[in-house]
Amino acid sequence: MPNFKNILRQVGQIVIPPVVYILMRIIWFTTFKRFHFITPIGDEQHICVCWHGELFMSPQAYRVIHKKHKASAIISRHFDGSLISGTLNLFRIGPLRGSSRKGAQKVLLQAFRSIKEGKEVLITPDGPRGPRHYMSDGAIGIALKSQLPIFIMNFKAKSFWQFNSWDKFVIPKPFTKVDFYLQSVSLKGMSLDESKEYLLTKMMEHTITDDEETATISKLKNEK
Questions:
Q1: For the whole model, what pTM was predicted?
Q2: 72: domain range?
Q3: Which end of the chain is more exposed for a tag (fewer CB within 10 A), N or C?
């Protein structure tokens, strides 16, 4: 007898991504967007990063800036990863299934293969399970080895819903103002630790934080 839970998951993988995609597009077209280019973003190939909690808007901003680039995203093997994968496919962003915890070696090989094919690789450095705004080695390692610049995507919404999840997932409310902060940075000549600190600093410049997190970050910086 088929497992009812597995059947529900299979149905969910088919039904949920198109629904999420439609919601994403509704929010996109009903918000007032401004794009702030901290640095120029050219047509050259990048490693692209955003925080896990900003996935509702950042892939859409990516497709505005790089409309025709072929792209793949590193996505976990969990069920929620399957939903993200199905949704990103609708933005012409293919999946590379794996994470720093499970299937790491395989997904890294897939990432470098994608890069050699001229594709951009999208990564959430704090995915798939956090901690929130934690800088894992994956994005850094891929960028250092490929010697590609990193395309950072952040946004801030004036009014938004925020989930009580580990990543504090953010969904802007319709008709609110959303500011996107986009920049290209290079890690050439940096060590792994230097790169992690530098990229973390750059990604935290224009992201939504709570008071407790802001205080923790300030404390860590003062201790150095």
A1: 0.88
A2: 4-223
A3: N
